[in-house]
Write a structure and sequence with these properties.
The chain is mainly alpha-helical. The chain is built from 12 helices and 5 strands. The two termini are about 20 Å apart.
Length: about 260
Amino acid sequence: MRNPSVKKRKWLYPVLYTAFFIISMLPLYTEKPYNPQETQDVIIKLLMVATDPYKAYAPIFHVLTLLIVAFIAWQPGKFGRVLAGYMGLNYLVIAFVQTMGTTAQYGFVVHTGGIVLYGVLGLTWLIVAYRNELQASFQPLSWQHLLLLPLALLAFWAPYAASNNGVQPDFNPLLLITSPDYGLTFCFTTPVFLFLLVLFYPHVNALAYRITAFNGLLYGLFNLTHWFTPELRWMGFLHLPLLIISIYTLILPRIYKAQEAG
């Protein structure tokens, strides 16, 4: 007889994925009106200014992440709750920081869908922390998973500089600690979180794991549009970690089940 909870879960994820997609399509609030075809341009303009007031806090997120990783390596299995709580709080920060700002062309902008999505992720991971449903340990390590490490480091580094001419590479090593994108934006923070979850799989909360990866995939696909604008092409490249790691995270459960069956 089939386990009813398994059957229910098969229906749950498509419903949640559809809901998240619909939420991501919520119209933006702008002080000055915009045409629907300008939506992506409004978001890009918002992202260029949203984190500016908070740049000074960027090193905090870099350092805290490194400290948590070090503690997990030092005491395997004992800091999963800390990591889940940190992820939850970080997503709530992103929901506040990345989704609102004043642009020159559109005035004050609110990314409505982003507030909801990042807020839901934040609350979900806080619940995971409360229930202690993330067991963090680097033992054992799979070499296949470690192939994602360069992508996670690229997101953590976010090596670019923005100007009126667009986005250009900037490989300043100080950005490994000072980049305002890691910790303050969804697209550069999520690849690092997903990479850690991949290393800890299957000892993670399945629901939180899947919805985080799905939203990563969603925004990774949205940001493919950067490739069609020459001055933003480097930004498109920097979103590959989000896209690739999200895809791998979503297919990992199937790989894991196939290995168990074999």
